[in-house]
Amino acid sequence: MADARGTAEVTKSSGVVKIYDGVRIHMLGDTGLRITSPDGRGSLTIAHAACSFAGELRRCLPYRVMLDQHGVKHLIDLERGTLYLNITGGPLQLPHSSTQVPPHSIVLALKTERGTLISVTGQIDGAPQ
Amino acid sequence: MRLLAIGLATAISLSAPLAALAQHRGGGGGGGGGGGGSHAAPARASAPQARPAAQPGGFDLHEDVGAPSRPATPARVNVPVRSNRPVNVTHAPTTATRPALIGNLGYGGQAGNHRVVQNPRYHGADWGWNRGVRWNPAPNYWGGGFWGPFAFGAVAAALFGSIYYDDETLSSYQVEPDSPGAQLLENYQLTQVSCGPPDLVVIFGIDNSVICAEPNDLVAAGEYQLDPSQLSIVSLE
Questions:
Q1: In this structure, which of A45, B99, B109, B215 has its CB flanked by the most CB atoms within 10 Å?
Q2: Is residue B21 over pLDDT 80?
Q3: Is A86 helix (H, G, I), strand (E, B) or coil?
Q4: Alpha carbon distance B203, B214 (integer Å)
């Protein structure tokens, strides 16, 4: 798990897409998550979410996302989003979908108030802190 | 990984109110700032509008930083505006006088003298139904997300009638499968119906949400308040 990485994709309302391969994904407690950019200079933290289980898959509805970048914290106004967490050792089926979430992995999709779409997939490479 | 991301993002758009996600795929170009290790998709969009200068590195989210100030917690909306979906209400909603809700219920509070209708499936420690993980409502969502991931203002669920009381209208929406609310209804063997007719089970949830169901052997007709910690309901009568 030490070398586990994920991919983040940021799609702006203008249509500009940026893809970040090699983001690091750490869990924070039961429901929190930190996603760190490949260069380590920025991180997105989801610390507040309503989480329940769809089978063994944890589904969270985040409502507060913090961007910590260049030593400054910014609150990102979030419109809506969903985070799926598979903390088991086996693949789990995404509800109402043919897609499986791999073991120790996440699927995250957010839409900000400004219309930016953020999607992240990848393995969790940090144990709950 | 890219293919997986595309597939999963599309899947999420089907199961959560993020249909726009899949629709925005395939754009690209520039963006300013950007971060190490990242790469931009081929250019397509017009130049972004003027925005604060971005420093290199990290995530290119500077358009979302310094957004117009607003409260950290979004303003509550009593009745979410939804439209463009079939409305399956053919009767006039009843006018009900809702008894005062029980304070702190669901977050370690006591029901006092109110009658608790125990969940037939779960007993014992708080949040046991959620594997011991506390469930916190998300204010962006109708009912805090308890009944499903329906964002305020989003067209995501069918209207299931409404209730008037104290000059206020509470709209009810279809409970999403796999939501905590669906689990509650299943545990009590309740089937959701449109709010409005008399003699229904009326469950008041979080953030002025309301769900109605036909009474059964486990739950008599009447008004109840949700206790999310125990995934149970408490009679308000």
A1: A45
A2: no
A3: strand
A4: 11
